[in-house]
Amino acid sequence: MVTLQHRHTFGLSASAAELYELRDKAELTQLQQRYIGHLPAPFWLMGEGSNTVFSCDYAGLVVVNKLKGIDIEETDIAWRIKVASGENWHCLVSLLVQKGIPGLENLALIPGSVGAAPVQNIGAYGVEIAEFIRQVEVYDLQQDRVFWLAAADCQFGYRDSIFKRPEYAHWLILSVELQLPKQWQARLNYPDLQHLPASASATDIYHSVIAVRNNKLPNPTTLANAGSFFKNPEVPVTQFTELQQQFPDIRGYPLSNGMVKLAAGWLIEHAGLKQVQEGDIGVHQQQALVLVNYGNGTGPQLISLVEKIRLTIKQMYGVVLEPEVRVLGATGLLTW
Ligand code: NAP
Predict the structure, then answer these.
(1) What pLDDT, on a 0 to 100 scale, did the predictor assign at position 39?
(2) pLDDT, tens digit, for every residue of 219-262?
(3) Which of 44, 109, 234, 283 could covalently link to 259 via disulfide, CB atoms 3.0 to 4.6 Å apart?
(4) For a pocket test of ligand 1, which of 110, 156, 187, 253 has the largest count of ligand atoms closer than 8 A to its C-beta?
(5) 44 has which bridge partners?
């Protein structure tokens, strides 16, 4: 057994039957033949473990992506950046901002690897990575072949993509090709960035996002967490209007699909759930969307708190909260 406690930012004590660190694409066939080809047990592919929680020992193989490399090409209208999936996301954003290549600044300080970005379609402060992805390089572990998947085929949605579907769990993202247009406009519509002038540069936004996130969100190295634990739920306009009558301060954002996005953190906080704790697992005091492990939390405590929150939110607002974080049991993803 190999410990996983320091491999996922939620820091629960858990082990994997086997662990493989992938450092070079040349190892792929060997990995496939040595492990996957003969594997009756499950396997899980991961980067920095900032959106994966191991709730107990994992009975299979965990492959940790350590592939590195960044290649930047300039055209008349854009920069094309090919990034290996094991690169750290925030280091990439910082590098591009330093080089004067704007576009990703609103996504600064999101924890995790570049390979996790398309899986989750990471988003923050009005920007989603999907709009900058040109294609994704994939290794199919079942068929031992590499192919490129165009952005249009990635089924990007709100914190969602084809890479989350269980039937594609054997796809390993090798690299991501981004296209950042030279024509750039500051995105300042989120409340936390509205203090910036319209003339704010990408560097100004980058520093503001870092300051806001450092202020609001717990640093996983000092307080174990996995970022936003739940997705913001979407409800029909009629339901939102009814909720507004009962909860006049409720926050809702109309979406282009005709639904209204609710702020899950608001729902949790106003349901009084910030005070709820199960053992060493609790709700973060500055940002109720984040669950934290005060040190000795356990998988059952986490599951119990998640269920308590979901039940309370359903009873109080009639809304189902879906976890954004992927929680693993002994043989695979837990479904809620
Ligand atoms: P906030 O500003 O307190 O707003 C709460 C929620 O309302 C956000 O989650 C956001 O949805 C939504 N919202 C706010 N202004 C909006 C606007 N102008 N248009 C549409 N939706 C709006 O949010 P926060 O919790 O401090 O987070 C700020 C940003 O960082 C958010 O985009 C959030 O998603 C992101 N974030 C992501 C993670 C993660 O782990 N994935 C962790 C922390 C923060 P959206 O979430 O859809 O943007």
Answers:
(1) 57
(2) 999 999 999 999 999 999 999 999 999 999 999 999 988 999 99
(3) 234
(4) 253
(5) 62
Look up 269 and say whether it is catalytic.
Answer: no
Closest C-alpha residue for ligand 1 atom 34: 124
Greatest Cα pair distance, the chain, in angstroms, is 60
CA distance 52 to 138: 20
Angle between helices 89-98 and 202-216 (to 10 degrees): 150
Residue type, 90: H
Please state, in angstroms and rounded to a whole number, the distance separating the CA atoms of residues 136 and 329.
Answer: 28
Distance from C-alpha of 46 to C-alpha of 38, rounded to nearest angstrom:
20
Distance 247 CA to ligand 1 centre (A): 20
Q: Which residue type sits at 121?
A: N
Residues 6+ apart with CB under 8 A from 40: none
Number of the ligand 1 atom closest to the C-alpha atom of 158: 47
**Does the predicted TM-score (pTM) go above 0.85?**
yes
- Contact yes or no for 186/97 (Cβ under 8 A): no
**Residue 304 among the catalytic residues:** no
pLDDT for the residue 142: 85
Judged on CB neighbours under 10 Å (0-12, 13-18, 19+), 272 is exposed
Question: What is the three-class DSSP state of 307?
Answer: helix
Contact 323, 229 (CB under 8 A): yes
As a whole number of angstroms, the distance between CA 326 and CA 133 comes to 22
Average pLDDT over residues 285-299: 97
